[in-house]
Amino acid sequence: MIMRKIKRFLLVIIASVLVISMTLILPAGAATTSNKNVKVLDHELVFCELDTVGNVESVRVVNWLALNGNGSVEVRERKEFAEKTKYQGIGGFAAPSDEGQYLVWKDIDVDGNKNLVAQTKLPTDVGKDQAMHIPLDISFQYFMDGRKVKVEDIIGKSGHFKMEVTFKNTSKEKTKVKVKNKDTGVLEETELDTYLPLIIAPYDWYFDNKVFFNMEADSMGIIFPLPDCYQVAWTFPLFPPATADTQTIYVEADVKNFRLPNLTIPVAFVFPVSNQTDLVSSFKAGFEKLYDGVNKLKDGIQTEVVNKGLGSEGTADTLLYGINAIDQGLQKMAASDAVPAMKSGLDDKLIPGVSQAAAGAGTIAGGLQTFSSGTSQLIDGMSKMQAGLEQMKAGIGSAETDPSLLYGISQLISGLTQILQGAQLLKGQAGSITPNLTTINALCDELIALYPAATQPPQIKSLVSTIQGAVGLIDYIAGRIINGIDNPDPNEKDLLYAATAIQSGLESMAAGIGSATTNPSLLYAVDQITMGLKAMQAGLGSASEENTLIGGTLKLKKGLSSGSADDPGIKEGLEQISGGLSKVLSGIGSHGTKDTLLYGTNAIGEGLNKMKAGLQEQIINGGLVVMSESLGATVTFLNQTTGTVEALKKRAEEFDHFLGKAESGSNVDAESMVRFIYQVKPVYGYKEGKSWITALVLSIVIGLILVAGGILLARRFT
Fold this sequence. Notes:
Blueprint: H1 2-23, E1 38-50, E2 56-79, E3 88-89, E4 97-99, E5 102-121, H2 124-131, E6 136-144, E7 147-149, E8 159-169, E9 173-180, E10 187-194, E11 199-200, E12 205-208, E13 212-217, E14 222-225, E15 229-233, E16 236-237, E17 246-255, E18 263-268, H3 279-310, H4 319-335, H5 338-396, H6 405-429, H7 433-450, H8 458-486, H9 495-513, H10 522-540, H11 549-560, H12 570-588, H13 597-654, E19 660-663, E20 668-680, H14 688-717
Parallel strand pairs: 1-20
Antiparallel strand pairs: 1-2, 2-5, 2-19, 3-5, 4-5, 6-7, 6-8, 8-17, 9-10, 11-16, 11-18, 12-15, 13-17, 14-15, 18-20
Helix pairs in contact: 1-14, 3-13, 4-13, 5-9, 5-10, 5-11, 5-12, 6-8, 6-9, 7-8
């Protein structure tokens, strides 16, 4: 029994030295540059032995001082507890002395590199009390064939075995952290829950393949099938918020003659360093932009769509205000007599009036066409008048133009003048005419008397009659001339005067007739009238010419009334309006009548209000606000994570000792580092015979590792 304990103790010490040598390469243990003579790295390896369910039964601590420099120094380590402890040097190394509040290594001569290793086992009550300060809980559960069991109760049995190990980081505490405000970007100090960063690396779990078959592990475990056993190992961090604060691992296998080996669990409270890309910074920048964009979208929809676009029934220039105004206008229209009065006005007055206007336009067009036709005749008459006047002017002529009226009048005046002169002459000889005429008449009587009436030749009778007529005429003319000369009739104009007046009138007439180029003159006026009539006729145009008075009047008539519903004029349009007005009131309807305007405007108003409420509640409050809050929380979380990571690094640097912390002195620059190893004692004497062989091999390996560790330390301190 004593021999077994010694073997176990040796195995613990060897494993402790192995873990310490492995932790020498962890970044957290790097020494800083100093001007002191000797640099000291104080390693503490805390070895906690657990029972099969995870309770700490004993605590051993190995102190390893790695020194580099030259000179004689004293290393003092301030204790964290009052009880005295007894250290033993390992491999001939000096052990410290317990001087109350300090552990002291005195008179250490350093020439280059030097290692001092000592270990102590704490009293049970002190060890358990100190173990309570380690911020890690470990618990084990065992199952056989799916039933939870105590591992001691299944020793030597067969079946399907499963073991679950749960690790919980209990280092949570409130820490002041500087976090960037998501809205302002200013760093603000806040108090957050932080954890010590924790790396757990269960390893050296060897399961005899004569006992365990078909070994399996959780997804984080790595199984190495060796010739005589399964080796299972894990490495995982455990520090929120990057991970959960709890992690459970498991192994399961078919077993025969069950027994459980030692289980070793190294633990380091260090911030893990990897070569992975820092995604937090990238995500954080992206989320910050997304958060800002969502806030702008939210504010834009709230302001531009909900407030300004949809608005309200009381806010002018908004959709709800407009649809409400339409609804109120339709209600007023439905409640008034305006529509019936409008229809009556159309039917009784406007449509008949338009019909009359169309008829009048037709009449006007007909009159204009007649007028246009009359204008043609008038132009023709004017042309004939112009020709007549030209002929009249030519007929009037002049006193020198033969033949012409003036020429004839001139000759008449000349003849009358000669007559007048002859009459004056005749007046002087008038007394001799009458006796001659009497003699002529007497001769005629005698001639007639020569022949009896019955035998009178007709020639004689005719001759006598002619002579008697001529005598009578001459006598009458002579009398008239003489009377006219002597006694002119006061009521008759003198013929010569009249002829002269006619000549003067004809000359005035000829001057009045004038020519087409002489202004003023009758021909000029006729020419102007003709030109005006032609221009008027051109303006009047025809039915086929749109841009003329007749064409425009006919177009106006068609516009007033076309007589076709397919190509309606004003009258047809008014008739359609009249027919439509009768449907207006039924079309306006009411809020409760489907397929009416008021029903539609009411539905639109309700729809817009629901849309507004939906935008407000679902899109803005329920969507964008929630998204903004969620993104804001994410950005805040990422900012907190960034601040927390810095706090974690600081806490990890400060969590550097367990029983005591080495202090720097006048010529000593000291740093501390602590690591933990938990080990579950085996159930039954698992492979005792081979344990010594394993221990021997490990001792050789540890010796080599120590040499390598010394070289590493030398490189780190130089």
